[in-house]
Amino acid sequence: MDPSLIDRAKRGDREAFTTLVLQLGDRLYSVAFRILRDASSAEDAVQQAFLIAWRELPRLRDESRLEAWLYRLLVNACYAEIRRGGRWQPGLRLVTDLDPDPSAADAQLSVDRRDELERGFRRLSAEQRAVLVMHYYLGLSGAEIAEALGISPGTVRSRLHYARQQMRAVLEADARPIANGGMA
Amino acid sequence: MTRNFDADRALEEWLAEGPSQLPYGAVDGIVRQLNQTSQRRSIWPPGRELMNRITFALGGVAAAVALVFVAVGLYFNGPGVAAPPPPTAPPTVSPTVEPTEAPSPIATPRPVPNESDLAPGTYAIHPLPAPDDSLTVTLTVPEGWHAFDETALFPWGDRSYEPPGGMAILFDDATSLNGDPCDWSGTDDDVSVGPAVDDLVEALRAQTAYEVSDPVDVTIGGYSGRRVDIVLPTEPFEGQTSDAPECDERNYTLWSTAAHGEHPITVQGPADHWRTNILDVDGTRLVIVTRYFPGTSSADRAEMDAIIDSIVIEP
Question: Testing the interface with B: which of A23, A30, A57, A156 to mutate, by most B Cβ within 10 A?
Answer without folding.
Answer: A30
